[in-house]
Amino acid sequence: MLEHIVDLLELLGIIAHKKKKKQEKQLNLSETDDSTQKQDTSEEVTQQSGSICAGCNRILEKDAVYELGKPWCTECYKTHVLKIKG
User: Fold this and answer.
1) In terms of pTM, does the model score above 0.70?
2) What gap in Å lies between CA 32 and CA 36, rounded to an integer?
3) 3-state SS of the chain?
4) Mind listing the pLDDT tens digit for each residue in 23-76?
5) 8 Å CB contact between 55 and 46
6) Phi (first) and psi of residue 5, to 5 degrees
7) Residue 34 neighbours by CB under 8 Å, 6+ apart
C-alpha cells in the first residue's frame, strides 16, 4: 500500500512538472509575440519616416542600398556588407 502511495506521488510530480513546462512554453511564445509586435511597430515608423541605415542608424532619404534585407547607406554598405576597408 505504501508503494502505491509513493508511485502516485511520483506520478503527480511528473504531471505537475509537465504542466509547468507547458506554461513556461506558452509564456515564452507570448513574449515572442510581444517582441514581434514591438518590432512591427518600429518598422512601421521607419517606413513612414524613411529608411534607417542598419550600420550607423542615420535616416536615409535616398541612395539607400537594400542588401541582406536591410537598408544601408553607401558607406556602411561598403564596410559592413562588401567588407571593403578604408
Assistant:
1) no
2) 6
3) CHHHHHHHHHHHHHHHHHHHHHHHHHHHHHHHHHHHHHHHHHHHHHHHHCEECCCCCCEECCCCEEECCEEECHHHHHHHHCCCCC
4) 888 888 777 665 555 555 545 444 445 789 999 999 988 778 888 888 999 888
5) no
6) -65, -40
7) none
pLDDT for residue 56: 93
Take residue 40 and report the three cell numbers written for it. Answer: 512591427
What is the grid cell recorded at 39?
518590432
Kindly give, in sequence order, each residue whose CB lies less than 8 Å from that of residue 70, ignoring residues fewer than 6 positions away. Answer: 54
Cell digits of residue 51: 529608411
